[in-house]
């Protein structure tokens, strides 16, 4: 192992061999040492030059950024005869005005040239008709008691005669 001009902070040769054996490969150190760091060969920026780039040759009162900005040039358009106004009665629209088609920013129109929607399947149940609400059926009258009370309700009841279905 040759010695480089830069001393790396690493373990001894014996511990390096043990580490490489346990890793199953040669251990590579992180590139934080100067000779391992990649070269920083970034080209110099190419900035466009202007008359105002050398402020050292200008006095402070001559440094006016507003003079470098000019208003936009507006060309006169149609400076001829004035057009006649359109009467509002002559303009008839089929409905309320709506905005135009949206701009497709991604260049894809997902809604063009599509087949019509398929017919929906028939409902599983027939549609309900609006009929008059049904009257509730009258209930049967309650059955008569098999053992009518012969004594007032606050006193114990006498035993009932036995019946064939053993109900009282």
From TrEMBL:
<dbReference type="Pfam" id="PF07347">
    <property type="entry name" value="CI-B14_5a"/>
</dbReference>
<comment type="function">
    <text>Accessory subunit of the mitochondrial membrane respiratory chain NADH dehydrogenase (Complex I), that is believed not to be involved in catalysis. Complex I functions in the transfer of electrons from NADH to the respiratory chain. The immediate electron acceptor for the enzyme is believed to be ubiquinone.</text>
</comment>
<feature type="region of interest" description="Disordered">
    <location>
        <begin position="115"/>
        <end position="150"/>
    </location>
</feature>
<keyword id="KW-0496">Mitochondrion</keyword>
<dbReference type="GO" id="GO:0005743">
    <property type="term" value="C:mitochondrial inner membrane"/>
</dbReference>
<keyword id="KW-0472">Membrane</keyword>
<dbReference type="InterPro" id="IPR009947">
    <property type="entry name" value="NDUA7"/>
</dbReference>
<keyword id="KW-0679">Respiratory chain</keyword>
<comment type="similarity">
    <text>Belongs to the complex I NDUFA7 subunit family.</text>
</comment>
<keyword id="KW-0999">Mitochondrion inner membrane</keyword>
<keyword id="KW-0249">Electron transport</keyword>
<feature type="compositionally biased region" description="Pro residues">
    <location>
        <begin position="135"/>
        <end position="150"/>
    </location>
</feature>
<keyword id="KW-0007">Acetylation</keyword>
<keyword id="KW-0813">Transport</keyword>
<protein>
    <recommendedName>
        <fullName>NADH dehydrogenase [ubiquinone] 1 alpha subcomplex subunit 7</fullName>
    </recommendedName>
</protein>
<comment type="subunit">
    <text>Complex I is composed of 45 different subunits.</text>
</comment>
<feature type="compositionally biased region" description="Pro residues">
    <location>
        <begin position="117"/>
        <end position="127"/>
    </location>
</feature>
């Amino acid at each position: 192992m040759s010695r480089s001009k830069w001393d790396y902070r690493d373990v001894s040769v014996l511990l390096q061999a043990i580490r490489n054996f346990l890793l199953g490969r040669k251990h590579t150190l992180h590139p934080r040492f100067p000779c391992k760091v990649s070269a920083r060969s970034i080209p110099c920026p190419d900035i466009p030059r202007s008359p105002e780039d050398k402020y050292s040759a200008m006095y402070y009162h001559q440094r006016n950024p507003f003079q470098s900005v000019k208003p936009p040039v507006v060309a006169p358009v149609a400076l001829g005869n004035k057009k006649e106004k359109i009467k509002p009665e002559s303009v008839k629209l089929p409905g309320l005005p709506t905005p135009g088609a949206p701009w497709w920013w991604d260049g894809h129109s997902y809604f063009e040239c599509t087949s019509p929607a398929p017919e929906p399947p028939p409902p599983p149940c027939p549609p309900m008709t609006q009929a008059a609400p049904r009257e509730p059926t009258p209930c049967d009258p309650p059955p008569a008691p098999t053992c009518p009370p012969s004594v007032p309700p606050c006193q114990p009841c006498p035993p009932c005669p036995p019946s064939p279905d053993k109900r009282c």
